[in-house]
Amino acid sequence: MKVKTLGQFIIEKQTDFPFAKGELSRLLRDIGIAAKIVNREVNKAGLVEILGETGETNIQGERVKKLDVFANDQFIAALKAGGEVCAIASEENDEIIPIDSEISKNAKYVVAMDPLDGSSNIDVNVSVGTIFSIYRRTTLSGPGTIEDFMQRGTEQVAAGYIIYGSSCMLVYTTGKGVYGFTLDPSIGEFCLSHPLMQTKTAGNVYSVNEGNYLHFPEGVKKYIKYCQEEDKATNRPYSSRYIGSGVADIHRNLIVGGVYIYPTTTKSPNGKLRLLYECNPLAFIIEQAGGKATTGYKRIMEVPITELHQRTPLFLGSSDMVDKVMEFMTKYAEVKA
Known about the structure:
Order of helices and strands: HHEEHEEEEEEEEEHEHEEHEEEH
Helix content: 25-40%
Oligomer: single chain
Largest sheet: 8 strands, mixed
Number of helices: 7
CATH superfamily of the largest domain: Fructose-1,6-Bisphosphatase, subunit A, domain 1
CATH architecture of the largest domain: 2-Layer Sandwich
CATH class of the largest domain: Alpha Beta
Mean pLDDT: 90
Strand content: 15-25%
Low-confidence stretches: none
């Protein structure tokens, strides 16, 4: 069987973007290179004193892990060296990182990323991931500005995630379907393993942190009870599967079918996940795979973005399941948790 590498595949697909002249292809390859470096460190994390916390807190109010910093530095370095982006927005940085260098003076893109999603799980050997989102810049020239990132998710040129698990996979879309590549460590290349990924219209897995049940909106509580009821016609009860590492939960549900729920709570009335770094890129991927992604009431990718670290609730996965949970959200919208 002929193996097709990420680099070969991207070159083949370059004709899908005649306006890009190869820049988007090079940008995706830069991300692939950084992913290999981060995967190497994740795999040997327990051996090189890179586990644990730095003692600092990021803009999100979360304790910073050593691997968070490493992954952030690697992706920033790769994107700067590639010269295809004029600015980077990272979940780990308070402000955007404008790039003012000779090689990036004509850069057409900006990248938003969560360099290590689920990093609280790294110390216990649970899968973590990287999420990225690519936009064409809206400003004309020079280093990028925050205005370049104030675009709805519908304006994304490409998005993807890398999951560092039992195998390392890179999954991405450019709006022409979803493709998955598995890293073959024997040759050091991402190889096409999951062409044109499609999620099931109706799954039987729901993923939510039920430890926060008391703090959920009434619609989510009712939907969870619905999932637990016995009904042969709809193959209920559904299975509850929650890893607590967003990329891992969503990757599983993408493949087997299911719904991922991260709602508002009384502690986080605006939701907890970031619209720019997490929700928009994941929504783009899931929609391209035939699923849906909403706030519980409206499509995620149509939500206006007004600030860099904006938060939102997220309901994402198999279309029938997302429709059902939205039905419950609408029905019980006026009932306070």
